[in-house]
Write a structure and sequence with these properties.
4 helices; 86 residues; single chain
């Protein structure tokens, strides 16, 4: 139980931040007009990831899936920035 909680807390933070960064990046003007509303969404999203981590059968699976999700979102953000040339 503690492993799932830690996975959601530790890996949910960067996952939430990068998901919102992707949303801002894809909005017109890189989301400059949406910065405050998107920042307000950070905490509910992080809490959602933490709560969602309890749906995994084991802590190991939660760590693996959330780590893979972090890597995928980070790669997508990097690729988006690389392709956009910013």
């Amino acid at each position: 139980m503690i492993a799932r909680c830690l996975a959601g807390t530790v890996l949910g933070f960067p996952l939430s931040a990068m998901l919102l960064a992707l949303c801002l990046f894809w909005l017109p003007g890189h989301g400059q007009d949406w910065l405050i509303p998107v920042l307000l969404l950070f905490f509910p999203l992080w809490v959602g990831v933490m709560a969602g981590s309890y749906m995994f059968r084991s802590g190991t699976r939660a760590w693996a899936v959330l780590a893979a999700a972090n890597a995928a979102v980070f790669a997508l953000l990097w690729l988006s920035r690389h392709l956009a040339g910013t």
